[in-house]
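Following the same procedure, sequence and fold were stored together, as reproduced here:

>
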Amino acid sequence: MNLGQIKQKVRMMGRNYFGTDADLDPFGLDYIILESANEIARRTDCLVGRRYLSLVAGESDYCAPDIYKIRVLKVLNMSGEYWQPKIFNFSNQMVDRYRIQPAQQVPDAIVISGMNRITFYPIPSISITNGVLVEGFAQPGNNWKYDTSGTALPNTDATECPLPDVAHDCLVYLTLSTRALQLRDKDGVVLFKQEYLDRLGQIESYAATYARRTV
């Protein structure tokens, strides 16, 4: 489903939740849908995504906000190709040999700490647009579509939901559950949350079947 179809289904199934004073925010429903999609992705590892970061001269620390479990990290070298530097855990003592080196154009080592913090050593000496390719388990974020260069495109009602098809009904019910919570409808919260959890289990089974689940 696309964003417009998801909103249509939410409004149809939760008709009594809309058209009131609580529905005056024109972006309220969009926000709930976006956040609900992010939650489903984080809880099931059902979405694998790619993002690009730009290297900045003199900056060593970066963050890939939509990639919450990094699995691939590559840097654009001087030949215009993405290549894989050595990747270390933040506690690895081997990092020290790279940390003390002077700045250079392309880093030799990458340190991953937390879930998505990235540190490059030696520190990059030049700025490179889209100089870093990051892949891993992702949440859709605030933008559901990107062009071929990795630039985020604005959402419209025609924008397709990036979650797998099996997750779309789950997204509808989580949105309805959140809306019911906003309006303090206890019966609605119980009803829609149960439907959401049932479908969440289906997504987890899908993720496991297609080997997308984290080992």
Q: What stands out?
A: Residues 176 and 199 are 14 Å apart (CA to CA).
